[in-house]
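Feature request, filed as a ticket because there's no other form

It would be nice if the structure record came with a short human-readable summary line next to the tokens. Right now we just get the raw output. Example of a typical job, pasted below so the devs can see what we mean:
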Amino acid sequence: MNVVLLKSSIGSKGGLEKITKRFIKALIEKGCQVTLLTTVSPKKPLPTLHPDLNVVVLGKEGPLSFWNLLFFDYKVKQWLKENPHEVVFGFDRNSYQTHIRAGNGCHAAYLKLRQESWLKRLSFKINPLHRTLLYLEKKGFENPSLKTLFTNSHLVKKQILENYKVPPEKIEVLYNAVEWTDFQKPFDDSFQVRAAKRLEWGIPEDHFILLFAGHGYKRKGLYLLIEALKNYPKVTLLVVGKDKALPPSEGNIRFFGSQESLIPFLQTADSLCIPSLYDPFANVTLEALSLGLFICSSVFNGGSEILTPSSGVIIENLFSLTSFCKALDVTCGHPKTPLSAASIRENVKDFDFTKQMQRMVSYAS
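Raw output as currently delivered:
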């Protein structure tokens, strides 16, 4: 089987790039001939990929995001016209593919959630990036040639069905995956690291350690979390990620900025809080569970669908302080212990990349 993969940029270290690379490896091991169509960026050089992968660079990225999307889509259609393939698997937004993994969620639903004011609504209508994303999303999702549309949560599946004319039987929910096996050693070392970091960062022994991780503090709900934590004097919040401006540092909050690795913070914390306003499936959900952390998640994180009462709690209404504090009360009742951490980790072993990739490969090959 010859398979064409569409990924406009593969030079970054994001979750989508990680899954693309894993999928390439799984397809080739299955015996497929795989061609990757991509572009290159001056800021993100093309990484070393599988030796048996055929890489076709369709051009260079420019400074305008919306133009890059349209350029890549045009070049893909041009290449496929000259090189027709039965299986075209897309990881971005393109107007044509036979299989899509909608890892970025549903942009139409995301914009509806963000319509805070008439000015914001107007900006969405005239912003060329949003207009381009919506155009490509509609073309790709509603294309008659589409065979399978993978979503990484039921949340995203529901949003696509509400916004686009897609037959429900074409949509398959396949949750994100994690390097569960690779997390074994960090898990084994976690309580030793936790004790050392608590001492290094001067965190009192009687404090519950809560972790927030994400870029874009407003969309990720950090301001709402900080407001709720005013009621919890014995909770220390570790903030990993970046934004243009820091929120006010009130109470026991430590800002660490962007980090190469989140693992030491996951090893140190009792719980991870994901109060996102929109996250198709936050990858950090599974990473934290693989290291035995209890999760406090918003209902707008698709990853909340895999939580159980013993592994997490859902904030039903992010904008209700009562609802937020109710979830935090439950969270603070689950300090990390060797027993609880081992149980939480064991519950997500079936989300290892190997098992998840096998299912995707079965559809493509």
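Something like this underneath would help us a lot:
Residues 8 and 38 are 4 Å apart (CA to CA).
The chain has two domains: 2-177+353-364, 184-347.
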